[in-house]
Amino acid sequence: MPQPFSFELTTERYRAFGLDPVNVWEDGRLHRVLAGQEVAIGEAPGGVRIAPDDRVLAAPVQRLLGAGFDLVSFAAFAATEDPVLARLVAALPGLRPSLAPDPWEALVTSITAQQVSLRAALAIRARLVEAYGVRHDRAYAFPTRAQVAAADSDDLRALGFSARKADYAVALARAPLDLDGLAALPDDEIKAALVALPGIGEWTADWFLARHLGRPDAWPAGDLALRKAVSAYYFGGDDLSIDETRTFGARFGPHRNLAAHTLLVGLRRVSP
DNA sequence: TACCAGGTAAAAA
DNA sequence: TTTTTACATGGT
Fold first, then answer.
1. What is the rounded distance in angstroms from the CA atom of residue A267 to the CA atom of residue A151?
2. Quick one: which of A24, A63, A99, A182 has the fewest CB in 10 Å?
3. What is the pLDDT of residues A196-251, one digit of tens each?
4. Based on the structure, what is the number of domains in chain A?
């Protein structure tokens, strides 16, 4: 892994919101299915150890752990431009945003998380995974797009989806859109393509850029937790509107994704 | 028991 | 055009 890197901080989100059958945390290792097989990712001096030891898996694991982010430039930016952010960066050394490996998984996960707490979202998503996903060893493969396309909206409602979220997920599964192909487009075109789908608004599209594609300047201004974090660290706890949060984010360009992630983890880990 | 939680779309004003 | 409302679940 490129340095700096903290395995503990980067994997924090896999332990923060409850049990996840897709990203299984057990005995200090993250188990999940990548490229059709289950891997166990554990800490090693200066990086990670992957089991089974397979060079083919090294690239997707690095991507999963946010290896593509330029933490050196970000830390230099924070140190010179923003004392508040600099304090958080210093308190969270080596924190990288982990990325959802698959665009379909990223979008369905976000749909489940719309409006509700991440714990509630995870509980519902877990039922979807256990109903439609395939279990490998300790981790489930996320249900495929074809599996959900073949399902009924009522099937998803039975798992705790609202009627509308069930419709969104099935419609996404059946939509004639090449989700992998989105990666070739610039941020604004990806957002336009996604927001055109039912149930995908700006928040979901922004998180797709941030936590699936790892785009450096993604900034989910509509995110309630991000608004709370900006409020807590910069405005003494006074509420911010979505527009105010979007405007405020300009100060973090071109590192808005790392800034957002740092603020969100900061909210859980570093007192304002 | 209420109320809030890492939104979205449609109805109402 | 802007504001209000329904949505379904889990945690407190």
1. 38
2. A63
3. 999 999 999 999 999 999 999 999 999 999 999 999 999 999 999 999 999 999 99
4. 2
H helices, E strands: number in chain A: 14, 6
For chain B, which bases have at least one atom within 7 A of a protein Cβ?
4-10
Reference A78, options A248, A253, A216, A240; nearest CA is: A253
- A125 lies in the same domain as A61: no
d(CA A182, CA A187): 9
Q: Which domain holds residue A109?
A: 103-211
Q: Are A113 and A121 in contact (CB under 8 A)?
A: yes
Other CB atoms within 10 Å distance of the CB of residue A211: 23
Task: Yes or no: say if A96 and A10 are a contact pair by the CB < 8 Å rule.
Answer: yes
Statement: the pTM of the whole predicted model exceeds 0.85: yes
CATH of the domain at A139: 1.10.340.30
Identity of residue A179: L
Q: What is the pLDDT at residue A197?
A: 97
Whether the CB-CB separation of A124 and A17 falls below 8 Å is answered with no
**Do A36 and A130 sit in the same domain of this protein?**
no
User: Per the structure block, which two tokens stand in for A118?
Assistant: 């991440």
pLDDT at residue A8 is higher than 90 = yes
Residues lining strand B at under 7 Å (Cβ) are A 13, 16-17, 113-118, 120, 164, 195, 197-205, 207, 210-211, 220, 222-226, 264
